[in-house]
């Protein structure tokens, strides 16, 4: 199964592109389309679910927007991820996230709708580098800073 998610936003162009491809993919396609106005016609689709975990567990490939939470969740779960930046966001942060994760070998960054079918094929056959959550030292850094203030 190919699972598509756009999170809580809208990304009608991606949803429409995959819905149009659905009859040619040779695989079940399920799309979570959030607040979008385009409702898929060629596959199973829904706006929101309490959890996407059941869909992730069934998916051979996940196609998503470049939202940080979605990308991290997919990569931390070792999913075969194809990501596309939503150009309608207020800045280009999704491209920055996807470029970094693609460059580190954790996923495929797809830059055009024409490349989607091939990106899905490549994702299926690729062994991605496992994503390791970096050690977080924020609490120690804040504590060190606050301790230094008390000595002044």
Question: Could you tell me the mean pLDDT?
Answer: 95
Largest sheet strand order? 3-2-1-4-5-6
Order of helices and strands: EHEEHEHEHEHH
Poorly predicted runs of 5 or more residues = none
The helix-and-strand class reads alpha/beta
Q: Could you give the count of β-strands?
A: 6
Q: What is the distance, rounded to the nearest whole angstrom, between the alpha carbons of the first and last residues?
A: 60 Å
DSSP helical segment count:
6
Computed Rg: 18 Å
Q: What would the principal axes of the Cα set say about the shape?
A: elongated
Share of helical residues: 25-40%
Beta-strand portion reads: 5-15%
Largest sheet: 6 strands, parallel
Q: Would you mind describing this structure in some detail?
A:
By secondary structure, this protein is an alpha/beta fold. The protein has six helices and six strands. The protein has a six-stranded parallel β-sheet, with helices on both faces. The radius of gyration is 18 Å and the shape is elongated.
List the main descriptive attributes of the protein structure presented here:
152 residues; alpha/beta; 6 helices
